[in-house]
Amino acid sequence: MAANSGLAKVKAAPLSRDVKKAKFLRELPLYVSLLPAVAVVFVYSYVPMAGIAIAFQKFRAVNGLFGSEFVGLANFRILFSLPDTWQVIGNTIFISLCKMIGGVIVPVAFCLLLNEITHKPSRRVFQTMVYLPNFLSWVIVAGIFIDILSPTRGIVNLTLGKFGIGPIYFLGDPKWFPGTMIVTDIWKGFGFGSVIYLAALTSIDPSLYESAVIDGANRWKQTWHITLPGLTSTIILMTVLSMANILNGGFDQIFNMYNAAVYSTGDILDTMIYRMGIQNAQFAVSTAAGLFKSGISLVFIVTSYYLADKLAGYRIF
Asked: Fewest CB atoms within 10 Å of the CB: 112, 194, 214, 236?
């Protein structure tokens, strides 16, 4: 019997290869269709990685990438000896963490509130209204908020003035600037972020609500004991995955809204790298800063996906 079993396995092997070959040929057009995208990613994402060498060189543009003097970790020592580096890292982490926490709490709260609206036309209107800001670039949104928050003619300060509150320099006072960035970022993205939680609501068994009604549970108890537990895995997943962006404070937003007066609390790694590399032509040190940020982000990405697998059962492959 063992011999027959072994013979069966030997005979089944060629069939398995034929099945794999047939599957590959069937999917070959899909692989071919991916080639343009792969080529674009290779040219614009992988080829430029050669520039990482600048972080370890005394780079001079006239000498080129391969003609500049190799200096090892000197650029990293210069970077971390700068008086503002650790403050900028602290600003980045603080702003990113607050955005991450608010970017979970606010969409979940909005999702729960929207779920309570039974009038479908009104529900669609609210959904459309909160989705719209996500499709506007930060250049447009920054211009809007600069006008709204202006200390002299902005509607916010004019309203505060009616109550005897003096003008607040939201974009010019280091004390107010980080909070302004956090609130405006959450405002812009919470509508689109709630889409994920609204989709998760559809997976909750309606019979649970029916049973709760029979047991006399009101809407609040249904939300607390059914809706929130049903969203828990999605909340954990989104929170864990957002860890990967812990050093991304939001360059587009802050670059379009900050100024030299708020560098002490509003400057982040991306804006510092931009000023050092593009404005001041300190290519080697700015490349070292970018490589440091990328290395830490890689660690966070790997950690976040590991935790997503362990806590929420989410895997890419």
From this structure: 214
